[in-house]
Write a structure and sequence with these properties.
This protein is of the alpha+beta class. Strands 13-14-16-15-12-17 form a 6-stranded mixed sheet. The protein has 2 domains: 93 residues; 250 residues, Alpha-Beta Complex (paralog of FGE (formylglycine-generating enzyme)). It starts with 14 loop residues before the first helix and ends with a strand. The longest helix has 51 residues.
């Protein structure tokens, strides 16, 4: 009698089970790759930041020990250090790109580091930040950011906003769009382009500090010498003016070279901005309740910045002194700074109206002129317009 062995057949994976396993493995692999990529990216950014921070310290030490107080002209490690060169090295295959502007006051430098793909930047006035190539709308210019006001590079209208078929447009032709409240200006600015907004106080102050430090914006040819140009503000002619596409800063003012009525100011990057100090007042999106600068107990008034006894607690600091530029603490009407119109004891919410207008006493006009006395939906005026940023 034969004895048969019992054969047991073990079932294998079904197609569905195999597919599930493959999908799970794929998900785990994707998570691993993403995590690794994130770690590599963080390490790269840390290297960029370290390179820039270390190099910036060396450049600033060079300036502090330079008899002229200049930054190095070059940071080239292929030549010996000298009175104009300082070798600064980047990690691995990273490379630096450097420019200095010793003609500015305060003097400035920009240092970029790249691995051929990403770019990070540091300046004398900022911490390391990623460089994002700005694509500004037509009629807008690029404004360099400032650590003083916590801004990165941004776009702003080169000209005061003009009403072109109901769209806020930056162009030389046409008179500024006026008779608008802050509430309406905010809505209108947002509709100008994707990402557009009514210029805010930090952006205004970034521009103000930047142009304040450029020698060509002063009648004396050096920072702090003479007066800043204050734009059309002598009531002659007694109306807002169109701009000149050709770039003549005295266009239609009846004035010539040497007059403070020049309507253009130059930024440190060479860009030109029109009518920041005159022509029409400009709304910003700023507002303040308590903490307004002025003179405690004196009520409302138009005051020279040098007479302010209550500096207030606004952020950002809107005074010339807040820029940190040497000598700015003593600058007022005589230097074309304009006035502060406010009530230091007023704790109700009021909006910011900037610059001057064609009929304002020229001694009151300037890029630091600010009126903090109207409500957001307050009375509009033919002397008040706005400017859009992105």
């Amino acid at each position: 009698m034969h004895k048969h062995n019992k054969i047991t057949i073990q079932p294998g994976f079904t197609i569905i089970e195999l597919l599930v396993v493959i999908v799970v493995i794929g998900i785990l692999a994707a998570i691993t790759i993403i995590s690794y990529t994130g770690i590599v990216q963080k390490a790269k950014i840390a290297t960029f930041q370290s390179d820039l921070t270390n190099a910036s310290k060396q450049i600033k030490i060079f300036q502090a020990t330079n008899n002229n107080g200049d930054y190095p002209t070059t940071v080239d490690c292929t030549i010996p250090d000298s009175t104009i060169n300082k070798c600064v090295r980047a990690s691995g295959t990273n490379t630096f790109s450097y420019t200095q502007q010793n003609s500015l006051n305060p003097k400035a430098f920009t240092l970029d580091v790249t691995d051929g793909f990403s770019i990070y930047r540091i300046t004398n006035d900022s911490s390391p930040v990623a460089v994002v190539a700005l694509s500004c709308p037509s009629g807008y210019i690029v404004v360099p950011g400032s650590s003083t006001y916590s801004t990165s590079d941004f776009c702003v209208m080169k000209y005061e906003a003009k009403n072109v078929s109901g769209i806020a447009t930056s162009q030389a032709s046409g008179t500024p769009w006026t008779d608008i409240t802050q509430t309406s200006a905010i809505t209108t600015s947002a509709a100008a382009c994707s990402g557009c907004h009514l210029i805010n106080e930090s952006e205004w102050m970034t521009i103000a500090k930047n142009v304040l430090g450029v020698a060509s914006n002063w009648t004396g040819g050096t920072v702090g010498s003479g007066s800043m140009y204050i734009g059309h503000s002598d009531n002659s002619p007694a109306n807002a003016l169109v701009a000149d596409a050709g770039g003549d800063g005295y266009f239609n003012t009846g004035n010539t070279t040497g007059s403070t009525q020049r309507r253009t100011l130059t930024l440190s990057n060479g860009e030109i901005i029109w009518d920041l100090a005159g022509n029409v007042f400009e709304l910003t999106s700023g507002s303040a309740s308590a903490g307004k600068p002025g003179v405690s107990g004196a009520g409302w008034g138009n005051r020279d910045w040098t007479t302010v006894t209550a500096p207030g607690s606004l952020t950002p600091n809107i005074s010339p002194a807040g820029t940190g530029i040497a000598g700015s603490g003593g600058w007022g009407n005589s230097q074309g700074m304009g006035v502060i119109s406010s009530d230091a004891d007023d704790a109700t919410a009021k909006v910011f109206i900037r610059g001057g207008y064609w009929g304002l006493d020229s001694s009151m006009s300037g890029i630091f002129s600010v009126n903090i006395g109207q409500t957001a939906g307050g009375t509009s005026s033919p002397a008040t317009g706005f400017r859009v940023a992105k």
